[in-house]
Amino acid sequence: MSQGPLKLVLRILDERWLYFLGWWGMAAGLATGRAIVSISIMVLSGAWLFDGLYRKDFKQKWKAFTSNHPALLITSMFTLYALSLLYSDGIESGLKVLNTLFPLLFLPMIYASMPALSKKQVENIAWIHISFVLFSTLLSYVVASPELIAAEPRNISLFVNHIRLSLLILMSLVLMLRFGWDKGAALRIGVLLASLWFLFFLWVIQSATGFAILLLLILVGSVYTLGRKGLARWMGIAGLVSVFGMTAWVTNSAADYFDREVVDVNTLESQTALGNPYVHWPEYTLVENGHRLWLYVSMDEMKAAWAERSAMDPMEEDLKGQPLIGTLMRYLTSLDLRKDAEGVMTLSDEQILEIEQGVTSGVPSTKNGLGKRLDVLFYEIDAYRNGHDPSLSSFTRRLEYWKAGLSLFSQHPLIGIGAGNVHQELDQEYDRSGVLASSAWHLIHNQFITFLACFGIIGFLWMLYVHYSPLRIPSLRKEVLYVAFLLVLSASYLAEDTLNTQAGLSFFIFYQGLCVLAVYRPEESTSS
Fold first, then answer.
1. DSSP bridge pairs for 277
2. Per residue, what are the HEC states of 159-179?
3. CA nearest 475: which of 218, 119, 124?
4. Which of 97, 209, 239, 461 suits 47 as a labelling partner, its CA being 20 to 30 A distant?
5. pLDDT tens-digit profile of 11-50?
């Protein structure tokens, strides 16, 4: 090897360029696709191996890892999953889970045994991460058609699902405030503009989860700054006002939606214009555009009239996979038309086509963004209360997933069912309850309940200790980035099985490294 390339290789090893390249790739890949994340993890592993061979310090690396309490705790999560396979029948399913969680076994060791990242290095990684989250959201919005934004806004994300993207946006907001707010007027303006864009994007994709976690972050941050002086205190007061204002808006929206007039069935007409009887169910409170869904229903007459207007069977599914008869009834109700032949015949050909395509309202919504999402959420809750099929909406499916998970925990409260049995036991639970259609069967969608079902109360308490015991370390407890990450992570656990997907695990291990494992060293008792 000539002198020039040799010097370059030695410089790469001396300055650990591969290690930082792996970090930069993780920072970029979280927002742009798991392939980049997977490659970056391999780069980090290779960098650690080459560094150990070059410096001949594997013993020191092992000592650094075993003396780092937070790193050992994160690795113990993988160990707990592996141990649970000892009493699991579904070994193949359990091995798939371990394959997803495999980075928990070695990345904490890599983070803890390499030199701690400096504050400047953490900042560089943070700005790369923010830039790619910004790129991902901008590109997703620019290439999305207006029709897709209007009809399926949560599907416009090009690279990651909308829930994961909302979490990345929230952490990017925290990173910008942490590293950019005190760096001069120009950067402060850039942070403000980027923050406004991120908030707008959350509004566009109707991320109720994102806004709920954002309010939690603002609330905690505001309470913290109230004890300070000057501008910080006023910002805390403004934050509390915004939280209370948003809460009041949501509460008022719910009150408006669920406010129902009392119906006297004796005052309702009993026959259609064709002389067929109406059926009224005033006890069912579902509404569409403010009108009661289960009043003035003549099912046979409505289906017969539909057969004259469309070739699609009303008892089959529309083009969105929803029961067509339900879409038809909701559409008629939204226009304050009765569910009979006259109502169906009043519809135009364009409206018939909309119903076939799965459009449930004939009245263009005056709401957009989060307001529109809240109405959808309120409808799902109301439909669930009125006994409708929970398989048809994401929120009500989650309620059934949580019930199934808690049922599994109640059957095996001490040590759980083991990670390998989750799929099989859940399917059996769904089959026993008979509430969800088989096409809607899924995992629990709540990481805390998943811990309970898999490991029982013993493993659940250990997982809580793993996640929150680093707060006992003063330097970590004072680090706003770490506290914000714990809040975001904990809130995300309530809505999904974060650790059971590669994207969720990557989010977890990246921020655990950036906030704790790659910056905290026991002998220093500080974090950057």
1. 271
2. CCCHHHHHHHHHHHHHHHHHH
3. 119
4. 97
5. 777 778 999 999 999 999 999 988 999 999 999 999 999 9
